[in-house]
Predict the 3D structure of the following.
Amino acid sequence: MKTAYPISSVLFHKTSALWSIAPEATVFEAIKLMAEKNIGALLVMSGGKLAGVVTERDYTRKVALQGKTSRETRVWEIIPKEIITVMPDDSVEDCMKLMTEQRVRHLPVVEGTNVIGIISIGDLVNWIISTQNAQLEQMEQYIAGSPAP
């Protein structure tokens, strides 16, 4: 199935809340905020600009497994150096390909220098499932001779 829909379509159906943390914050503060908001990643913002993304995976691999402490380690110490972003017009298919190639589960969506959202692999999977369900429903209605909604 082609997934040429733009990422802006996925963002439209998500909550507009964006959660972020400063690079100087402790990893403990980041993990605590993620737990409170029931999310797996935070935007790392410095002076209103995107500095990266910190994830639960970063904590597990770069703090817990390396014997560091989350109360002493700063977020900037564990975030990837390369910031991978997408734009609102990028397709769902392109974003899935990028996530697979770069082995990331979260992508900030930017417009110019402004972060307008963040998408997860789960968001994309849910979007594709709901799109497929809608298409199946339309096909069933067409076959049954009913007008499309």
Summary: The CA atoms of residues 47 and 55 lie 20 Å apart. The domain at 7-144 is CATH 3.10.580.10 (CBS-domain). The first strand starts at residue 20 and ends at 21. The chain has a mean pLDDT of 90.
